[in-house]
Amino acid sequence: MTANNSDSAPAGKPSRRGILKVATAVSGGAVLGLAVPTAAVAAGRGPQATRTLVGAIRWDAWVGGDSHYGSGVNRTLSPDKYHFRLPFYADITVPRPVLIDQSFDGETTGTAPAGWSVKAPTGTDASVVEVSGRTGKSVRLRSSSGSTAVTMARTFSAQKRAVTVQWQWKEAAAGQGASASLSGGSSVAVDLATRGDAGAKELVYRASDGSWNVVQAIESDRWYSIKIVIDPTPPEAAAPFVDIFVDGIRKVRNAAFRESATVLDTLVFGTSEGSPCELYIDDVSTRVTESVNSDATLQGVMDREIQYAKDAGIDYWAFLYYPQQPLARARELYLSSKRRGDVNWCAILDGNFTGSYATNLPHLVAQFSESNYQRVLGGRPLVYFFSTATAGQVATMRAACAQAGLPDPYIVVMAWTAQGAADLKAAVGADAVSRYATGKQNGRPYSELADAEAGLWDQYATAAGSVVPTVSTGWDKRTRYDYPLSWEPNYTGFKDEWTQQATPKEIATHLQGAVTWNHSHPDNASASTVLIYAWNEFDEGGWICPTLFEIRDAGRPLRLDAIAEVPRTS
């Protein structure tokens, strides 16, 4: 999911801290909106019920296991720096994923690079050098017009699954035939080179038919950061593939191997034969791409999640409703759990559901009558539409409920701006508005996110009337910049999309602010609920589900413990 990073607050509206101060100073339940429910409440108007329901979004593309979706998301948290986000049920399957990590800075100038097999015939040179204008040291491969190629090769333990290879390089004169290759045994899986064709200087890769394909244009004396993600045995029997990134941008996706290879074990850099080439190489790394597995496809895992949520006072999960497998698996495990009555659920509908609306709707409406489906305002089934809804879809759902003898559903539309939400609510005939998440950029403090989001509650209320406030627990999509997911092609901005991690106390304080806002705005919070982003958006940076390190190091679900202490009635 992608959040809109709106920081604005409406003029003249009280701040989040101001709301808390007023609520503390005021006495009397009536002032806080703690009136006894009336017929007006059941109709969706007037003072709200005394207790605010706390829901949490579930994003269940996080399925783990050997699937396209599970593999993609597992890769985002495989780098060591992101392991603190792993859910409690995760396994670190490769404890030492780094195969090569070499910057050359500590090596002796003028010597061959340590650990590499160097072939430097007469007239060539391979040595550690200091490069003007660059901190530290690099390796220079240099050959003349009359010489053969100079190469440096490094082997690593053979890998049957994906690896990520990264390095920085430049040519003094671009397009002189510098090369890089990754092999398994005698088979070259990926082959990169530079060339100069009709005046154009290009980085190219060789296809399985032997032809060369352009990656991008290149310039002389300029450093480029190259990353290759290569998988010889991808999940679900998919074909082996190569992704090529230049300066963090994916230039080639799902390219075929140059030659068939079932393992990977050798990295080689070199110059061209018979032409002058001066190539500089630095910061070389090779690591196992997917070194963790967060397999949530087990009944025991779901049962433990339900227990954790219940103990923290989470009233319901708002499932992003995926009709298709394997993304439906988590919801199915919840519905089959003997503990399903401990935490209610409701649906968030997006294009995955509405794309086959006529087929999917009857299955959802049948769930509305179940005792564990979340209802508000005297029995109305709670439903969220995320970024997609039409008047026809809303009318059809209401008609289906009426035909089934069910109360009219309470429909909430989610949008990234207050005006966008208000316009959508009016256009489709929804009951209220909400938002999926809120983020800040460039490592801003979580307190700024919380204050900005509190201001958004007011903006949405002013624009649209009835609101379900969102309580975001964090935002950090840098994981998806390192390993872009197939369903998010516009990922390059993610390197700047991050907020400092929240403490459990900060999350609890923000939740308390939302509960207080509900009780001090009874006309705008008639459904008496707030929605936490999120239960399990681990790789996007918003979660309250216990983590592996949290349970291991503290022995307690610290974020959930803090949430459990938040009163729901003031």
Explained architecture:
With 570 residues, the chain is α+β, with helices and mostly antiparallel strands. The protein has two domains: 48-92 and 293-564, Alpha-Beta Barrel (TIM Barrel), CATH 3.20.20; 98-289, Jelly Rolls, CATH 2.60.120.200. The strands form five sheets. Strands 1, 19, 20, 21, 22, 23, 24, 25 and 26 form a nine-stranded mixed β-sheet that branches. Strands 3, 5, 6, 8, 13, 14, 15 and 17 form an eight-stranded antiparallel β-sheet that branches. Strand 14 and strand 15 (249-255) form a beta hairpin. Helix 7 packs across helix 8 (391-403). The longest helix has 19 residues, at 446-464. The relative contact order is 0.17.
Largest sheet descriptor: 9 strands, mixed
Shape: elongated
Residue stretches low in confidence (pLDDT < 50, at least 5 long) are 2-49
Query: Strand-residue fraction?
Result: 25-35%
The number of distinct structural domains comes to 2
Report the CATH topology name of the largest domain: TIM Barrel
The CATH class of the largest domain, by name, is: Alpha Beta
Q: Based on DSSP secondary structure assignment, what is the total number of beta strands?
A: 28
By secondary-structure content and strand pairing, the structural class works out as alpha+beta
CATH superfamily of the largest domain: Glycosidases
> How far apart, in Å, are the first and last alpha carbons?
31 Å
InterPro entries: TAT_signal
